[in-house]
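Pasting as-is:
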Amino acid sequence: MSEVRELEYVVLTLKDIDDVAQFLVNHFYPRNNVILGTRCSPETALSADLHHIHLYLTSGLSTGARDKVTKNLVAVMLSCNYEHYAEATQNPENEVRILRAWHIIRKLIDLVVDTRKDRILFGARICVDPDYVHQGVSTKIAKLCLDLGTKQGFTLACANAISPYTDKACLLLGFENVKTVNINTLEDGIFDLSCMSYKILKIFTKQLGPETILSSKL
């Protein structure tokens, strides 16, 4: 956009589910490498993702940004308690490939986090409307999410990335890359690599505590 629009930053709840679902269909699923690699349409991805979306929006850990003039949702950061996410991402049988892919990625995360030691905030989806990029919006909603998690007693934040942009964003927020996997080494038949612009999966973690509060309030 040529003009920088004023935004309001919010905690997303179930009342936002329709806006969040439409935002994901329009902006997140069509660009996400996992969705592309499983050749999953945005509509199929949404159907498979609805249970998770409900989980994110009831967690008190998801944030977003709305244009103050239009009230349109222009960015989302969907997060939840990792233990709850793991419970919701069991090994699917006879399901669409995207669910199997999410399960495989979750099992990789299990290798580098310990829910017995840490209460883990899982950052699952982050996306900004292309008209609002390069304005610091993704950094703002991510910082707010981390602050919410810290205030709720989470001691570790975790995220996975299959995008160089998400890689960079995680590093700028102080995350550490704790595991790197080539997508072509994962289960055969899950990903069509020809559909993916980036084929490296990275898992990031960040310790949380009172000293990590990044912003004062929403």
